[in-house]
Amino acid sequence: MSAKTAEFVLSAPAFKDCPPETLPEVCFAGRSNVGKSSLINAVVGRKKLVKTSNVPGKTRAMNYFRIDEQWFLVDLPGYGYAKVSKSERERWDTETRTYFKNRGALRLVISCVDSRHEPQKLDEDFVFWLGSNGIPFAIVLTKSDKLTANQKQTATSRVRRMLKNMNMEVPVLLTSSEDKDGIEQVRELISDFVNNNYDTD
Ligand SMILES: Nc1nc2c(ncn2[C@@H]2O[C@H](COP(=O)(O)OP(=O)(O)OP(=O)(O)O)[C@@H](O)[C@H]2O)c(=O)[nH]1
Ligand SMILES: [Mg+2]
């Protein structure tokens, strides 16, 4: 189901600017241009809740949205965008790591990975870091409309293999914001974590 209400709350350039932890939250992260914003719009069922673009790396803040008065959705700027200065990249790395580690209300990180490619080093490092720090996450593969049935199989199994090599077991979903494949499953996943139906220990 689409969200009944979805409102922009604020844009937090730093961890200290995040809103009070009044609701459970779910955060979307991933490389620039992976399709995070499109995925968010599809999940919430809004055409333009979040801006999508061909110009990657524009947002440099944690963007908060209140969904159905029940949870906060957080859109993070993509990592791995080459044109961002080194100092800004380092600042952002510190802020997001602080956020992931210290945000008590954070229930789930949705780590978005492009289904067309092997997970990149940056994706692997990010996932490994989340897992090592005990942060609950799931992997959502994006842009599945670009794949054949065979390629879909490959995309999912290579991510599962990567997780297995890291000794991690987390949900892996294949999605397309274009044809809405897998979107309902992402909603269900979010709802499970928001309502605490998952044992994350
Ligand atoms: N075919 C296809 N294209 C998609 C899909 N999702 C996103 N795209 C395209 O991929 C590009 C990037 O999408 P965004 O949603 O803006 O990506 P993002 O991860 O939010 O990017 P940044 O915010 O810049 O990090 C756009 O041109 C989208 O139209 C999808 O499911 N299928
Ligand atoms: Mg975006």
3D architecture notes:
The protein is of the alpha/beta class and about 200 residues long. It has a single domain, classed as P-loop containing nucleotide triphosphate hydrolases (Rossmann fold, 3-Layer(aba) Sandwich). About 35% of the residues lie in helices and about 20% in strands. The protein contains 5 helices and 7 strands, in the order E-E-H-E-E-H-E-H-E-H-E-H. A 7-stranded mixed beta sheet has the order 1-3-4-2-5-6-7, with helices on both faces. Helix 1 packs across helix 5. The longest helix has 17 residues. The two termini are about 30 Å apart. The model has no long low-confidence stretch (mean pLDDT about 90). The structure holds guanosine-5'-triphosphate and magnesium ion.
Topology readout:
Blueprint: E1 6-12, E2 25-30, H1 36-44, E3 62-67, E4 71-75, H2 86-102, E5 106-114, H3 121-132, E6 137-142, H4 149-165, E7 172-174, H5 183-194
Parallel strand pairs: 2-4, 2-5, 5-6, 6-7
Antiparallel strand pairs: 1-3, 3-4
Magnesium ion binds next to helix 1.
